[in-house]
């Protein structure tokens, strides 16, 4: 009897672990070039980030941006409260988020790292408008309305690391945020990553 109860307990524990490991909380991908806020937290460049430091790949929210998707002010966290630190215009503890130096109008390679390689609709990249308010969390109104770079992916599955190269928008200077959106073909979600840059 005791052996049967032990076996049942192990079975339930294993099922629970499998359920957790296949759920949305385990996440699936992030950008590390230009480096995203979640990757800065994960690699220890920025500290005090909370849960995102262990789950940079988990910034997953509804797809359809900008018509739908995360609410304004919650875009960088994909609307997930446990990753709210990513929405702040300043890093945890204060001060500016580290930036990547880029040249307006130049060719740029964007790189994603994937822990689960979902079939993909596309990758889109948006950038903040000239004169945007960088003391406030990111909103749709702060972004240029159209993506400056789109990579169709035709429901294919990406490799574990994916790079693609496109042209940055011209006429940009100073601090901006690039929002990368990875839209999944076979779920209702997308993954979001905010990268602070200086043109």
From TrEMBL:
Gene3D superfamilies in UniProt: chitin-binding protein cbp21
The organism's place on the tree of life at top rank: Bacteria
UniProt keywords, alphabetically: Monooxygenase, Oxidoreductase, Signal
InterPro entries xref list: Cellulose/chitin-bd_N (IPR004302), GlcNAc_Chitin_IntDeg (IPR051024), Ig_E-set (IPR014756)
Residues that span the membrane, as ranges: none
Keyword Oxidoreductase: yes
CDD domains assigned to the protein according to its UniProt record, in alphabetical order: LPMO_AA10
Boundaries of every Chitin-binding type-4 domain copy: 28-197
Gene Ontology molecular functions: monooxygenase activity
SUPFAM superfamilies, sorted: E set domains
N-terminal signal peptide: 1-24
Keyword Nucleotide-binding attributed: no
Protein name in the entry: Lytic polysaccharide monooxygenase
Any Pfam family the entry gives: LPMO_10
UniProt cross-references to PANTHER family, sorted A to Z: CHITIN-BINDING TYPE-4 DOMAIN-CONTAINING PROTEIN (PTHR34823:SF1), GLCNAC-BINDING PROTEIN A (PTHR34823)
């Amino acid at each position: 009897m005791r052996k049967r109860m032990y076996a049942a307990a192990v079975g339930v524990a294993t099922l629970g672990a499998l359920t957790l490991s296949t759920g949305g909380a385990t996440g699936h991908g992030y950008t590390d070039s230009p480096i995203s806020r979640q990757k800065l937290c994960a690699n220890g460049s920025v500290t005090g980030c909370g849960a995102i430091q262990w789950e940079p790949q988990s910034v997953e929210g509804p797809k359809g941006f900008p018509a739908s998707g995360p609410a304004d002010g919650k875009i960088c966290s994909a609307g997930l409260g446990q990753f709210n630190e990513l929405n702040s215009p300043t890093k945890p503890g204060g001060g500016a988020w580290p930036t990547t130096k880029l040249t307006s109008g130049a060719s740029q390679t964007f790189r994603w790292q994937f822990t689960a390689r979902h079939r993909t609709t596309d990758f889109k990249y948006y950038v903040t408008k000239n004169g945007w308010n960088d003391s406030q969390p990111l909103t749709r109104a702060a972004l240029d309305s159209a993506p400056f770079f789109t990579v169709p992916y035709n429901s294919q599955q990406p490799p574990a690391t994916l790079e693609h190269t496109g042209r940055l928008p011209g006429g940009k200077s100073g601090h901006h945020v690039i929002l990368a959106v990875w839209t999944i073909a076979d779920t209702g979600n997308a993954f979001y990553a905010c990268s602070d840059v200086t043109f």
